[in-house]
Structures are given as structure tokens and as C-alpha cells.
Amino acid sequence: MANLKGDHISSVSSIPSNALNHWDDDFVQSIETSNAGSEYRERVETLVKEVKMFLKQMQTGDCDLIERLEMIDALQCLGIDRHFQAEIKEALDYVYRAWDGSVGIGLGCESCRSNLNATALGLRLLRLHRYDVSADTLKNFKDNNGQFTFYGGNNDNDENNIKEEDVMRSMLNLLRVSGLAFSGEIVMEEAKAFSAVYLKNLVENSDDTYKRSFLKEVEYALIYEWSRTFIRWEAPNFIQIYELDKQRLKDKRILELAKLDFNILQFQYKLEMKELSSWWENSGISKLVATRERTMEYLLWAVCATDKLELSRSRIAMTKITCVVTLLDDIFDDYATLEQLKCITDAISQGWDISIIKDIPNNLKTCIEFVFKTVHELTSDATKEQGRDMMPFVTKAWEDYIEACFEEARWKTNGYFPTYNEYIKFAEKCVSFGPILVHTCLLASHILCDDDIEKIYLDTSRFYHLMRVCMQLTDDIHDFEDERLHGKITSAISCYMGDNQNCSEKEAINHITKLKNKLLKELTRELFKPNNVLSDWENICINSTRGVEFFYIFGDGFTHCDKEVKHQIFKVFVDPIEI
After folding, report:
1. How does the average pLDDT of the chain come out, rounded?
2. In this structure, are residues 2 and 290 in contact, taking their beta carbons and an 8 Å threshold?
3. pLDDT of 155 over the 90 cut
4. What Cα–Cα distance (Å) separates residue 293 from each residue in 315, 559, 560?
């Protein structure tokens, strides 16, 4: 990237391809937004009532455990479970009463043998809803050779009567539950390895023998485990899966509801696309510096964090603030001297004092004024929402972040190379978690007390420590090469190599990857502690972490977003589901 010092304005030709905006404003404004009228909403209200009646009939009827579990799973995968929270809890309470911690469950309450498919699916759904269940239950389905068997125990199996389709479904649910593993749950690691080998072989050698819907579900599960996906991405994928196998749903109205619900939400996201695209286009920033323009990509991340229809302002805030964080990051990396960066840092930490930056180059000054204007506008909205002045909280969150950015710039300028432990402590603040989520959460929750607001950016609990470190390590693992070419020498990878002189780059990446995966499992344990009720803003924080994992599945999706991520945005934001 061109290094802009002084008043130089970059030309378009100097902008690298990974900085370009892949969403032309004219195109965004031309996107159709007339497919979610009042008739959709009226039909959804009717369908919700009818499906509630259907679920009540299931509960009072003679449905087995597996049927209840498969219905809950369908509602969640189709993204409509928020309409049926009471019904889902009633069904899961029923399942939990039948749950045996040592052997799991069978297909029904009267089953004499525990069943791997029912147990794996039950374990996953119960854990997702914070019931007290242990993965040790899966040990009941291992034989003496370490293989997982269809029925629990080794004495009462009749392998000749097991349908291959049932085994396939069991392996799929075994893989899916392994994505909710806690640190130290060896049986979950074994379940993941065993089921993944089986399912990969199934996909590679299917020859169209098996149902297309099942194979699509397997392909999805092999890529998108729970910690690296989100509801609005899962919904269109599973709508396609259930469309291919309509017999799986007991009531066709469920699929209709899922389609209408998706389109209604998508309509709102399209409106947000247009507002944000205009906002960025009108800022003129792209004519001043070759910054990464990721407005639509950051909106997708915001939908990962909070997808509710009524939280549009929160998503707008998250997208805008992530854009200005990226702008600042690029300025700190490429466009200013250390002295100029000190002025910018002081201006923010000393209460957004614009006079402190009066002597920096004009193009940088205009960019910083845009940052200040955006922050003040969003803080004003938050003040109205919370009923008191939010600027002190916002300033503190930004102060910690911007001072960490300046510290990193000073390291780079002075050629200082921190130890690995020093870097990890510093990385928690440099990850921009604080300012992004403060602005987001202040517009997403009911009135928050001061302690809760401070927790968003100051909390030192294990839960928040894990979220911040996991986000930074994920970025370091996937951005190591790009950052090095960019002149940025400090990362978890490089600092680990610095502490371990005989360690190769590959070994360092493997070590940090294993560490990050371990910390993600610890975070999963913190999240799914029994009866751990999270507030709206806490859910936003954890879903933001999942969103980061999602964007890095195929490499750095924030930096290289012209292929896979563009397809994902089309699928979630642009292309409606045919009714």
C-alpha cells in the first residue's frame, strides 16, 4: 500500500485491490426492496399462531423424544425459534426429565436402549439451552476398540437391523455436538475425529446414492460448526436443505414461515445496506486515503452480532464504528508519522479535542474529523437511548483502544519486539472490542447501569478475556503474511517465535492455532454454564466472536472479500427466498 505522508491524495490506481469497495453505491441503491409488504407480516403472524398450536399438539400427543428434538432442531436451523421459546422450553424440559447422565436417551421415553442419534442431538440442544448435561454420556457409545456404536452398551446391539440412513444421521449429529466441546472433553474430540472421517468419506464416495438434502447438510456441518456460524447464514442454507426433503418436517407451514420470516428480515437489511452505502459514499473518505472499504462486510458482521428486526440502529452503529476503526487502523499503519499519531491519540483520549490535530496534514485531518463526527453522532443517539450522558463511557473505551494502537506504532517505529506474554496483554485492548461493542450495545439493550456499560470494555472476567484474546489470535493466525508484507512485525506468531528461537513459522502458527481452539472451548464452557442467563448485550458480545470466526473460515474474509464473502452477502442480504 502506498505510504501517504504530508498532503498527498492517493490516486485510484495506487489503491490495492484488497482495499477497494466491492459494493458500488449505484448498485446497492438499485437493489429491489419491495418484496416484504404487510401481507408477508400478516401471513407470518397467522403461521406463528398455527405452528404454536401444532407444537402444543406434539407435546400433548404421543411423540417420541427424537421427534421433539428434531422439531426443535428444525426451528433453530431455519432461524424461527425466537417465535417459539416457550414451546421449545417445554419440549426440552420433557427431554431432560428422560435424560440419563450415564447412558443418554433412547428414541422414546419407553425405549429400553439408549440411541446414539437421539443422545447426540439431545446433548447438543440441551447444552445450547444451558441444561446441566455432560459429554461423558457419549462414552456409553464406544466399544472396546474406541469405535462409536449406534446403541449404548456392548451387550444388546443388533447391528444387522440398523439402517444405514440411521447410522449416517447419528454420525452427523455426533459431529454437530462435538462443536460444543468444552476444554478437556476428550470424548468430544474423539467424536469429532471419528464422525468427520466417516462423513468426509461419505461425501467423497456418495455417487448420488444418498439424498441430496442429507449430503448438503453434511457438507454444511463439516465447515460451519456452532462457534463459526450465525442464524441468518444458517437459515437460507437449511431452507434449501428442507426444501429438498420436505418429508422431514411434520407440517409444511413451518417451511413457509421460515421463508417469509427470512425475506422480512432481509428487507430490513437491504434498507440498512442503502443507508450505509450512502453514508460512506457521501463521506468522501475514499478520495483521501486508500483505506479498506468494507461497509457491507461489516454490516454482515453486525447481523452476526444482532439480527433482530427492531435493532436496526444497533447494526448501523456497529457497522459505522467498525468502518472508522478500520480507517484509523490504516492511518496508524500507513499514513502518519509517530508525531502525527501522538496528536491523534491525544485528541481522542483528551475528550475528542479537535484543536489538537490542527497541524496534521489536511487529508488526515479530514479523516479524523469524520471519525470524530461519527463517534459524536452515535454517542448522541446512545445518550437519548440511555437517558444520560454516554460520552464519558465512550471516551474511556476509545482511550484504551487508541493508546494501544499508538503503543504498537511506537514499537514499529522504534523496532521494539515485545515478548509473547507482553503482546498478549497488549492485544486485548488493541483488538478494538471495546469501542465497537460499546456503541453497538448502548443502542441494543434496555437502559444499562454504569457497571454493565463498563463491563463491555473493562471487564476482566475470564469470559471477556477469552473473547478478546480469541478474536486477536484469529486475526493474527490468518493475517500473519499480509501484516508482515504490510510492515507490521508484531503478532502472536512472530512474538512466539521470538521467545522460542528454534521454532519455525509453521510450528508457531500450529501452536497459536491450537491455543486459540483451546481458548474457544474454554469460552464455550463459560457460555453454556447451566442456568447462565445472558443479557442482550452479552449475547451481542459472544455472537460478535462467532462472527469473526465465520469471516475467517476461508482465510481473512475482511481483507479478501471479493469472492466467498461477497457470495455470503448476496445470500443473506440480496437474494430473497422464493415463496
Report:
1. 88
2. yes
3. no
4. 17, 9, 11
Better pLDDT: 385 or 531: 385
Give residue 148's identity as a one-letter amino acid code. Answer: F
Distance of CA 283 to the CA centre of its chain: 28
CA distances 420 to 202, 368, 487, 540, Å, are: 42, 32, 19, 29
Three-state SS for 384-418 is HHHCCCCHHHHHHHHHHHHHHHHHHHHHHHHCCCC
Cβ count within 10 A of residue 286? 17
Contact 566, 575 (CB under 8 A): no
The DSSP code sequence of 455-496 is HHHH--SHHHHHHHHHHHHHHHHHHHHHHHHTT---SHHHHH
As a whole number of angstroms, the distance between CA 375 and CA 369 comes to: 10
Mind listing the domains of the chain with CATH numbers? 39-258 (1.50.10.130), 285-574 (1.10.600.10)
Look at residue 9 in the predicted model and tell me its pLDDT.
Answer: 31
pLDDT of residue 159: 54
What cell does 51 get?
Answer: 405452528
State the residue for C-alpha cell 493466525.
477
Residue 473 predicted with pLDDT over 50: yes
Q: Which three cell numbers stand for residue 308?
A: 433482530
pTM of the model: 0.92
**Residues 221-248, mean pLDDT to the nearest whole number:** 94
Instruction: Read off the pLDDT of residues 199-232 as tens digits, 9 standing for 90 and up.
Output: 999 998 876 656 888 999 999 999 999 999 999 9
Helix axis angle, 65-77 to 116-128, nearest 10°? 50
* Closest listed residue to residue 348, CA positions, set 404, 431, 289: 404
β-bridge mates for residue 104, sequence order: 100
CB atoms < 10 A from the CB of 95, how many? 21
Rounded CA separation 116/118 (Å)? 6
Give the C-alpha separation, 267 to 261, whole Å. Answer: 10
- Nearest alpha-carbon partner for 74 in 267, 247, 223: 247
Is residue 195 within 8 A of residue 172, CB to CB? The reply is yes
Q: List, in sequence order, every residue forming a beta bridge with 151; answer none if it has no partner.
A: 115
CA dist 147 and 524 (Å) reads 26
> Cell 472476567 identifies what position?
461
Place of cell 442482550: 536
CA geometry: angle at 171 spanning 523 and 513, to 5°? Answer: 35
